[in-house]
Amino acid sequence: MVRLTGKRIIALVDEEFEDLELWYPVHRVREEGAEVHLAGEKKGKVYIGKYGVPAEAEYSFDELDSSQYDGILVPGGWAPDKLRRYPKVLELVKDMHADRKPIGQICHAGWVLISAKILDGVTVTSTPGIRDDMENAGAIWKDEAVVVDGHIISARRPPDLPPYGKAFCDALAEK
To answer: Can you give the residue ranges of the DJ-1/PfpI domain (predicted)?
Structure first.
């Protein structure tokens, strides 16, 4: 299947991303024909996941323009606590939200959406560990494998990756 040919996706990276939560969705959208660009604070830097899997940033956050992309993937792990501190990351997420482009977030990635202030009234899921954070940001939290609320696709943790990957690809195909 190549239903996503011509689609361009940003995948955010920083130290201690959850390895599967980055690479599974990246490979999933690539399988369907999308082009994925890994972006970190520093272009060319190799970031190491929680379990030792590397990811090299092909672009720095500052090089990216959300108007040139069709969606964004935010991995979990401990990286979201770092990612949400970069103004450019928050700008990219806010711009994607304003344009109703698919935003994929899994596990602790909800922290980035919280800091972007885009969750008020949005139905989501996440790792149960940040449920209070999500609800305090105005989100409606559900304990489900995947929750799709418009263009925001959320999942809890690695066992939920298959339905999460499909839901994100479906959202991209519909956009």
So the answer is: 7-168
Buried-state track 158-174, b at ≥16 Cβ within 10 A, e below 16: bebbeebbebbbebbee
pTM for this predicted structure? 0.97
Catalytic status, residue 108: yes
pLDDT at 175: 83
* Contact yes or no for 79/16 (Cβ under 8 A): yes
Residues in the chain with pLDDT < 70? 1
32: nearest Cα among 161, 170, 158:
170
Distances (CA, A) of 93 to 7, 12, 144: 17, 11, 23
Taking CA atoms, 101 is separated from 9, 145, 174, in Å, by 10, 21, 10
Q: Which two tokens stand for residue 116?
A: 């972007």
Question: Sign of the CA dihedral 19, 57, 67, 3?
Answer: negative
Report helix angle 161-174 to 19-31, nearest 10. 40
The pLDDT assigned to 137 comes to: 98
CA 59 to chain centre: 16
User: Of 16, 54, 20, which is closest to residue 38 (Cα–Cα)?
Assistant: 54
Quick one: pLDDT at residue 1? 56
